[in-house]
Amino acid sequence: MNRRTLGHLLTATLGLALLGPAMSFAQAADEAPDALIRRVSSEVLDAIKADKAIQAGEMNRVLALVDTKVMPNVNFTRMTASAVGRSWRQATAEQKARLQQEFKTLLIRTYSGALSQVNDQKLNVKPLRAGPSDTDVTVRTEVLGRGEPVQLDYRMEKTPTGWKIYDLNVLGVWLVETYRTQFAQEISAKGIDGLIASMAQRNQTNANVTKS
């Protein structure tokens, strides 16, 4: 699988697992991590199939959907901090906010077209290997469709508002670790502001490609 295909799959499957509707505080706090993945995956498959704008890759529709549905299920601050690595502790509050915004936009814009490829895929959630007192687990699943099953795993942590995803593994490749290597090189060469500028430039380029 080449990098472009893997990237499309990363964001497509991230979207599949996270685009379910938000639950009440009590429901979310009580829901088991594997149950959450199973529920929202099923709901989002139905939602994408019914939304022709998303199928067509309409950017504003995708962005709005992610902002309203994805973020409640993700510890995106932890995800961004892990991707940035040790330099996150030295970043200012403003830099951290910019890093999160540009990172989110990068993930969405780079591979937003993948959402239009969703058709008859199904998700098989494997038995959860975790104890009742565990607060950090890995939910292992596989995407079933045409061709071989695709490994898709989620690292999740228990919070006061329920389980949150903070990393995603597709075919043995963890999303955060992949970006951490790339970001470390850019920070070493240009600093935090250089990384932010680089992501912003890529996001603008991707936006222009989407419009063309």
Low-confidence stretches: 1-13, 16-26
Count of runs of 4 or more consecutive helical residues = 8
The main β sheet shows up as: 5 strands, antiparallel
Strand order of the largest sheet: 1-2-3-4-5
Strand content: 15-25%
Helix content: 55-70%
Q: What is the CATH top level name?
A: Alpha Beta
SSE run: HHHHHHHEEEEEH
- Radius of gyration, Cα only, in angstroms? 17 Å
Q: Briefly note the structural class of the backbone.
A: alpha+beta
Number of strands: 5
Question: Span between N and C termini?
Answer: 27 Å
Name the CATH architecture.
Roll
- Counting copies of identical and different chains, the oligomeric state is single chain
* Number of structural units classed as domains: 1
CATH homologous superfamily assignment? Tgt2/MlaC
Secondary-structure map:
Blueprint: H1 3-18, H2 25-30, H3 33-50, H4 52-55, H5 59-70, H6 76-84, H7 93-110, E1 122-125, E2 136-144, E3 150-159, E4 162-170, E5 173-174, H8 175-211
Antiparallel strand pairs: 1-2, 2-3, 3-4, 4-5
Task: Please name the defining characteristics of this protein.
212 residues; alpha+beta; Nuclear Transport Factor 2, Chain: A; 5 strands; 57% helix; globular
Short description:
The protein is of the alpha+beta class and 212 residues long. The protein has helices at residues 3-18, 25-30, 33-50, 52-55, 59-70, 76-84, 93-110, 175-211, and strands at residues 122-125, 136-144, 150-159, 162-170, 173-174. Mean pLDDT is 78; it is low at 1-13 and 16-26.
Report on the structure:
- It is a single chain.
- With 212 residues, the chain is α+β, with helices and mostly antiparallel strands.
- The protein is built from eight helices and five strands.
- The protein has a single domain, classed as Tgt2/MlaC (Nuclear Transport Factor 2, Chain: A, Roll), CATH 3.10.450.710.
- The chain has a five-stranded antiparallel sheet with strand order 1-2-3-4-5.
- Strand 2 and strand 3 form a beta hairpin.
- Helix 6 packs across helix 7.
- The longest helix has 37 residues.
- It starts with a helix and ends with a helix.
- The N terminus is likely disordered.
